[in-house]
Design brief:
The protein is α/β, with parallel strands linked by helices. The chain folds into 2 domains: 262 residues, Rossmann fold (3-Layer(aba) Sandwich), CATH 3.40.50; 111 residues, Rossmann fold, CATH 3.40.50.1100. Helix content is 35%, strand content 13%. α4 packs parallel to α5 and α8 packs across α9. The N terminus is likely disordered. Pfam families: PALP (PF00291).
Length: 396
């Protein structure tokens, strides 16, 4: 079988509905780089729904966690995209956009699995958070609040200068309203820092007799914000062993930072404590404020690392590989490079991305592949974001 034929037939998805059940399987201890498959392409022809066990070391395993996801999010090959980009790399995707049955899921739902137990333990009755008008994060906060029986109050700031007539009515904000969160529109502009508008909302909830649980933008600059994607790294490792593949490069969009930072911490723990080979974890900046994003990513990666068993010095500035070339000069505004990437993914393989986050990271991945800057096996982390598409009706 030719490599191209095998790649076209690749439809591998890994999924589990019971992520905590232990399995004694010798194959899970094999290093995919040292396995000897019967042929060069044998791994690529597999289609597996076998349960994948995610085993965390202490102290990571003992940190309280809710179960908002179906299980490990699926991984699948993107053969037509790979071929269209020259056929010299293997592009796969791990799909956080279909990770949960709560309000369409997304990467923030994974993060919130670690924040909500603390909110419940503290006796809080209201989750409060912040984002732009079309924030995926605030929609997911509203969703998990409804799931566990809490109230949600949200600040939706004017982060993007976009004139679409449906921008403040459809997409993420429509779903947040549907779930009872009553978003508060505010004219404040984009920023990943802790915002005074959210501090004011905290005081309002307390004055009304409520007990708020404070969640910063993206659930990122929070003591527990990086844990969900540190766990994601262990999830990828388990799925790699099942597939018999090793991803040389992980590529992910970065704005508020804890998705990227959590991955860095998780893969660093696997490398230093568990002998897993080093790989590149590459963030594609979409904030257009890369200095702030880089600093926040380093801070989050360090305190996440300490929580899960690393030392502060184990993660350094050199670990924060943040590429600044693809943010289009402004948060939330797509230029032609991003729009072209969105169309490419959609028309090549039905791979739908958005103009704020994934369209920009897809554009970055495509350009880096074409320039030969990333090679081998690439895992693209699809974080979600498609629900904002209706608010960008002029884009496509």
């Amino acid at each position: 079988m030719k490599m191209g034929d095998a790649w076209r037939r690749a439809t591998t998805i890994l999924f589990t509905s019971c992520p905590h059940q232990a399995i004694d399987d010798p194959k899970l201890n094999q290093n995919p780089r040292t396995q000897n498959p019967s042929s060069k392409t044998s791994w690529i022809c597999k289609s597996s729904f076998k349960m994948v066990t995610v085993t965390l070391p202490e102290p990571f395993a003992s940190i309280p966690k809710s179960d908002f996801l179906f299980g490990p999010s699926p991984i699948h090959a993107l053969p037509r995209i790979s071929e269209a980009l020259g056929g010299k790399v293997e592009v796969w995707a791990k799909r956080e956009d279909c990770n949960s049955g709560i309000a369409f899921g997304g990467n923030k739902t994974r993060k919130l699995e670690y924040l909500v137990p603390e909110a419940l333990e503290q006796g809080c009755d209201t989750l409060i958070s912040i984002g732009g008008v079309q924030s995926n994060h605030t929609r997911q906060v509203a969703g998990v609040a409804a799931k566990v029986g809490l109230k949600a109050k949200l600040v939706q700031e004017h982060w993007v200068e976009w004139s679409d007539p449906g921008y403040e009515k459809v997409g993420n904000i429509q779903l947040s309203r549907l779930m009872g969160a009553a978003p508060i529109l505010d004219p404040s502009t984009f920023g990943i820092e802790h915002k005074p508008t959210l501090a004011s909302l905290t005081k309002e909830v307390i004055a009304e007799g409520g007990k708020p649980y404070y969640i910063p933008a993206g659930a990122s600059d929070h003591p527990l914000g990086g844990l969900g994607f540190a766990r994601w790294a262990f999830e990828v490792h388990a799925q790699e062993k099942e597939l018999g593949v090793f991803f040389d490069n992980i590529l992910v969009c970065a704005v508020t930072g804890s998705t990227f930072a959590g991955m860095i911490a998780g893969f660093k723990l696997l490398e230093l404590k568990h002998g897993v080979p080093h790989r590149r974890v590459i963030g594609i900046d979409a904030s257009a404020k890369p200095a702030e994003t880089r600093a926040q990513c380093l801070r989050i990666a360090k305190f996440t690392g300490v929580k899960i068993g690393l030392k502060d010095e184990d993660i350094t500035e050199a670990d924060i590989e943040l590429d600044e070339r693809y943010h289009d000069g402004c948060y939330g505004i797509p230029k032609q490079m991003t729009i072209d990437a969105m169309r490419f993914g959609a028309q090549t393989e039905g791979f739908i991305t958005d103009p704020v986050y994934e369209g920009k990271s897809l554009a970055g991945m495509m350009d880096m592949i074409k320039k030969g800057e990333i090679k081998g096996k690439i895992l693209y982390a699809h974080l979600g974001g498609q629900l904002a598409l209706n608010a960008y009706s002029e884009v496509c």
